[in-house]
Amino acid sequence: MSLFKNVFRIESTRLKHYDYSQPGEYFITICIQSHECLFGHVHKEEMRLSPIGEIARKCWEEIPYHFNNIELDEYIIMPNHIHGIIIINESQCRDVQLNVSTRISPKRGSLSVVIRTYKAAVTTICRRNNSFEFCWQRRFCEHIIRNEKELNNIRDYIINNPVKWSFDEDNPHSILGR
Is 74 within 8 Å of 84 (Cβ atoms)? Predict the structure, then answer.
């Protein structure tokens, strides 16, 4: 851990010197704070979304409308987390940057900006709908997908996530126990 302005901070989990705005496929996991099961529940190995889960789904599916270089691949909204594949394509337009970026600002159009915008949209709509108990876990997990085999394995993992929910360590009712 390093110090910033004499305060400890957690180092980034991102790959150093990697440009997360460059074209590629990324496997994303985003969790609800304290792994609360607010997105819904798994019934007979099928995910059933709650109203908050429906908000998360709608916002996820709208990501490409807000970022012209983003495509969505397979995804699943689980009771307390989301798994998805985001594809960053070559940017089609070079619009003018409206804000001044700093050394610590995420690069415009980067994976961090996409996820930050998504999380903010879900949170805003939840608050508007009086779902004040909803809160994201800080940060998100990502994995750079390097080849077709890996992409297909991750797609299978996402599709089969509800089937494996009863064994998930973040499932409060896991048959494995905590």
Answer: yes
Q: Which domain CATH number covers 84?
A: 3.30.70.1290
Does some domain include residue 58? yes
| 48 within domain boundaries | yes
Domain that holds residue 35: 18-91+117-166
Q: What is the length of the chain?
A: 178
Name the residue with tokens 């337009």.
Answer: 93
Please tell me the total count of domains within the chain: 1
Q: Is 69 helix (H, G, I), strand (E, B) or coil?
A: coil
CB 105 within 8 A of CB 114: no
**Residue-wise over 6-34: b if at least 16 C-beta within 10 A, else e?**
eeeeeeeeeeeeeebbeebbbbbebbbee
Tens-digit pLDDT profile for the chain (178 aa)?
Answer: 455 555 655 555 545 666 667 899 999 999 999 999 999 999 999 999 999 999 999 999 999 999 999 999 999 999 999 999 999 998 755 443 444 445 555 567 789 999 999 999 999 999 999 988 899 998 899 999 999 999 999 999 999 999 999 888 878 877 775 5
Quick check: is 102 in a domain? no
